[in-house]
Amino acid sequence: MLCVSPRQKIKGTKKNKFTADEDALLTQLVQNYGIFDWDTIAQKMNNRTPRQCRDRWNYYLNPNVKNRPWTPDEENILIEKYMKIGPKWAVLCQFFDSRTDANVKNHFLLIQRRIKRGNEDSFSIPQKIVEKKEIKTPEVSILEDLFLTSPGEDDSWFFC
User: Fold this and answer.
1) For the domain that residue 18 is a member of, what is the CATH number?
2) Within a domain: residue 140?
3) What is the DSSP secondary-structure string of 11-45?
4) Cβ contacts of residue 125 below 8 Å, gap of 6+?
5) Is residue 154 part of a domain?
6) Is 34 part of a structural domain of the chain?
7) Residue limits of the HTH myb-type domain (predicted)?
8) Which pLDDT score, from 0 to 100, does residue 129 have?
9) Distance between CA atoms of 107 and 123, rounded to whole angstroms?
């Protein structure tokens, strides 16, 4: 059986970058139809899938999303929180004002590449991480910390 991607199912769907005209049209269509009717918006966009339209809006065009450069403080917070929480991007993005989960993940991976290559001069990161050339993920997840308690500990919060 041959797998077919959603883009191949829609004849003539574009794979290339959105143009400025498409961005303007998408912004107008979101104002008209809202952020939940991606099927209708995609039909009006000509050759774009609902997912392409949704992702373009959510990650780039939404006025509530910041796509400005990261500050050294933000990078330090990202590393610190990652070392405590791990690669839970939807959780991590909540520590940053107007950054998406994809933006947080992509920037973390950029930091990781810089550290491995030894290009950490452009931002301030903890020296112990620079020396080890890696960022460790936590060994115990936050959920395990929250829900796995030792016998005999106060279990009253389970009951109303």
Assistant:
1) 1.10.10.60
2) yes
3) TT---SPPPHHHHHHHHHHHHHH-SS-HHHHHHHH
4) 75, 76, 79, 111, 115
5) no
6) yes
7) 10-65
8) 60
9) 12
DSSP 156: G
Structural domain boundaries enclosing 127: 72-147
What does the pLDDT read at residue 3?
55
Indicate whether 94 and 51 sit together in one domain: no
Longest CA span, the chain: 64
Q: Are residues 81 and 142 in the same domain?
A: yes
Reported pTM: 0.62
Q: What is the mean pLDDT of residues 80-88?
A: 92
Judgement on whether residues 80 and 124 belong to the same structural domain of the protein? yes
Counted domains in the chain: 2
pLDDT-based confidence at residue 118 (cuts at 50, 70, 90) = confident
Total residues found in the chain within this entry: 160
Q: Judge whether residue 146 has pLDDT over 50.
A: no
Are residue 143 and residue 79 in the same domain, yes or no? yes
Residues 84, 138, single domain; the answer is yes
* pLDDT band at 99; cut points 50, 70, 90: very high
- Our measurement of the distance from residue 96's CA atom to the centroid of its chain's CA atoms, rounded to an integer in Å, reads 11
- Percent of the chain whose pLDDT exceeds 70: 65
